[in-house]
Each structure stands twice: as C-alpha cells, then as structure tokens.
Amino acid sequence: MTETAYWLAISCWPGIGSRRALYLKQHLGTGEAVWQADATTLQAILGLRPEAIAQMVKERQGQDPGAMLERIKRAGAWVLSFADDDYPETLRQLFDPPIVILGWGELLKQHARNLAVVGARRMTSYGRQITDQLISGLAGSDVVIISGLARGVDGEAHKAALASGLVTWAVLGSGFGNLYPQQHRDLALRIVENGGTLLSEYWPDAKPEPHHFPARNRIIAALADAVLVIEADEKSGSLITVDHALDLGRDIWAVPGNATSRFSRGTNNLLRHGATLIASSEDILAEWNWGTTAPQSGELVPPLEGCPQLVYRVLTDQISSLEDIVDNSGLTTSEVLAALMELELGGWVEAAAAQSYRRTPAKT
After folding, report:
1. Quick one: CA torsion of 328, 252, 172, 126, rounded to 10 degrees?
2. Residue 298: its pLDDT value, please?
3. Residue 181: cis peptide before it, omega within 30 degrees of 0
4. Are 3-104 and 113-287 in the same CATH fold?
5. Mapped to the 3 state alphabet, what secondary structure does 144-183 carry?
6. What is the reported pLDDT for 320?
7. What CATH fold (topology level) applies to the domain 3-104?
8. Whole-angstrom distance, CA of residue 93 vs CA of residue 347
9. pLDDT, position 295
C-alpha cells in the first residue's frame, strides 16, 4: 500500500482537515501510521471529543485505501498527497495545504508563468471583452491560466485561454463526478482535451458545498505567480483569493472599471490600496519583463497617471470613437472626456472627427 493511498483515505475522514492531518503526520510520521492509529492515540494527538474521533474511526472501517486509489486511476485521474515528492511546492507554502490534490488531465508541469484570473460571476459585457483581450494578447507565451470554472469571469478566462492556445487549469469546489456549474461540463472536457487539468482536493463524488469554494480559492492563489482580478463587487469571493495571494506574497493585479458599476467597486478598491493596474496584455508582459509592444527607445511617453494614462493606453494612431474609448477603458464618459481634454492640452491626443480621437501622429 502506498502513502498516497493512505492519505487519500484519510482526507475523507469527517472533520479531519489539512491542519489536523499535518499534525498527525508530525506526530506519527507516515500515512500508514496514522491509518493504523487507534482511537486513543488519535484523541490524544488531536484533542477532539470522543464522538468526533469515533466518526473518523467509523469512516476508516469502511475504507480500502488501495481500492480507493485504484478507482481514481481507473477513471483516468491522478492523485498526489502532501507526503509525495511530486506534490507542488507552491501548495506546501499554504498554512493548510490540501492533504491530497486530485487531477483529471495532464500532470502539472512547470511553466514560465502561472496567472490566476478571477472575477465576478455576474460578468458584464465589459468584463467579457477585457478578459478576452488580456488573455488573447498572451497567445504564444508560456503562460498557464488558472481559474475556478465558475460562471462569469472564471469561465470566460478558461474559454479565452483555449481560444488562444494556452494551457488552463481549473480548480474545482467539488469532485470530478459533480462538476459545477453543470453548464460548464463541456468546457471542463475541452480543458482536459486540450492539455489542461481539472484539480480538486475532494473525492470525486463530493458535492459542490458552499464552504468548498472559499477553500479552493487558496489553491488558485498558491499555484499562481500573480492574481488578476477582473470585475468584483466589494464582497466578491474573488477577494478571498486576493487575501490568500497576499499572505503568500503573490502579485495582485486589477483591471479598473466603471466607477458607477457595483462590479468595479472591488477592483477599484484594490487599485486604491496598491494593486497593479492592468489595462492591456502589454501591461502583463511588462510586469514580467517579457517582450512587449511597449514604447521603444527614443519614443516619447506621456508623464501621466490615473485616467489620462489609461485612456492613452487604449488609444492608437487609428481613430477611435468616444464610445469605444469608454468601453475599452472601463471609465465613465465624464472621466474619459476629462482625460481626453488633458491629453489634448498636452499634445498627446487629437480629435480626428466628431466624438473621435487618436494619438497625435508625431508622438506615436
């Protein structure tokens, strides 16, 4: 019997949790020793009520660790426990690393960068557009896109990654046998078919319980080099991912949004508190010091910040309507008009036609 099999079975004990499993490992050394420990030993180490220990022992009596592991493998999935050498090192950085991580698809491979993309479930058309633009601009780069397969920004991020030929990982709040939401079942299959992976710390039959989703957010944060938030309310679950990422020392990026939209309150607040502003895929590449279409040597760059800087970034030497600038910048019409006035006064932008603008040719 392998250590992986023992820890897989232990992870299904009621009330065990990652911290308690780690505590048992520290005291008893191996998954086999934990598995064989009697109720008195378990209670002495964990300090739980006898009733709680009795539930764990009862669950253990009905388990066959080897058969459980074999069932996972027959389904075409794989399992790594926190005792395995191949267990992702970034997950070990968590205060409560998953006891096991189950994968359906490719084993997790090293990529140049791992980018988590999270955001509102009730995504707006702006959220969809900017998600597609940012991820499509990374096509051809060795970047894996990580998200949670949820409705809204999560699902759009996975779709955009697939459309751009990028690998994408989906971290689930349920088991593989209860994919949630059900309308993303085909998307999940496409992720696997295109070299990506579905990840879960739960047994395949596990249902999508409400408390599973905040827990899975810590895995998303741990696997990422940076967390990009696209549209989030002030109480969005995406901000839980941000909190975990901050604890782990990951970069926090946010896309600015319309100041009047409730789905931009969370992202705009992140920017006020020091998150890096991301308005284009070039911004992402620049943060990673990769090749970009950023200004070349000798090219003039406007010394601007805030709204004027954001508006200048979405403009090119091609004519853009005021409506397009508002849509692409995520700002309000009044914010865009004020920014355009400042840019015109500085000679960086010119009005090309009624309600249309472009960068000044001499400075592009």
Report:
1. -10
2. 42
3. yes
4. yes
5. EEEECCCCCHHHHHHHHHHHCCCEEEEECCCCHHHCCCHH
6. 87
7. Rossmann fold (3.40.50)
8. 50
9. 36
CATH class of 113-287: alpha beta
Find out if CATH 1.10.10.10 is the number for domain 306-363.
yes
The separation between CA 78 and the C-alpha centre of its own chain, rounded to angstroms, equals 21
Tokens of 33: 């020793």
CA distance 23 to 19: 6
- Which residues lie below 8 Å from residue 331, measured CB to CB, with a gap of 6+? 256, 258, 259, 307, 310, 311, 339
Question: What is the distance between the alpha carbons of residues 149 and 175, in angstroms, rounded to a whole number?
Answer: 13
- Pair type for strands 100-105 and 77-81: antiparallel
The torsion angles phi and psi of 259, rounded to 5 degrees, stand at: -65, -20
User: For the chain, which residues score pLDDT lower than 50?
Assistant: 292-299
Check residue 362 and give its pLDDT. 59
pLDDT recorded at residue 356 = 87
Site of tokens 């003039």: 300
| pLDDT for res 263 | 84
Rounded to two decimals, the pTM is 0.79
| Residue 352: per-residue pLDDT | 76
List the Cα angle 82/83/85 in 5-degree steps.
95
Domain locations along the chain? 3-104, 113-287, 306-363
Residue 192's alpha-carbon distances to 65, 198, 258, 292, in angstroms, are: 26, 7, 35, 30
Cα 205 to Cα 10, 80, 176, 209, 334: the distances in Å are: 16, 18, 7, 12, 52
Q: Which of 224, 227, 219, 222 shows the shortest CA–CA distance to 253?
A: 227
